[in-house]
Amino acid sequence: METLIADSQEILTAYGFKILAALAIFIIGKWVAKILTRILRRVMEKSKVEATLISFLSNLSYAALLVFVVLAALNQLGIQTTSFYRSRRCSRPGNWPGHAGFIIQFCSWRHADHLQALQDR
């Protein structure tokens, strides 16, 4: 029983700070995302943009900012999110012809056989 308590205290001290840091990143990032979205909304309102477009763009910008906040918090916890970035970068076919060398260099684990043919052109 005593070893269980000692082990649980070790685990809590090891991961407790990571969890608190990730939680702080998430809360502060969400707050900053709201502020930036509010600023964007005010700028568009002063520019007399249509209300529907204001709502759509502000919601879209908030969602995009929140994705980055969540990825930063997950990265703080030790969850590797670089594969998410790489898969999003490699999955856009519009990038293949112009950036074939770049994509092969950074994403060689995915689509490499398709991109090698594009690079040989």
Write up this protein:
The structure is a single chain. The mean pLDDT is 78. With 121 residues, this protein is mostly helical. Helices cover 79% and strands 0% of the residues. It has two domains: 1-79, Helix Hairpins (Orthogonal Bundle), CATH 1.10.287.1260; 80-121, no CATH class.
Structure described in brief:
This protein is mainly alpha-helical and 121 residues long. The protein has helices at 2-46, 51-77, 82-90, 100-106, 112-119.
Distance between the termini: 67 Å
Order of helices and strands: HHHHH
CATH topology of the largest domain: Helix Hairpins
Taking Cα atoms only, what radius of gyration do you get, to the nearest Å?
22 Å
Assigned CATH class of the largest domain? Mainly Alpha
CATH architectural group of the largest domain: Orthogonal Bundle
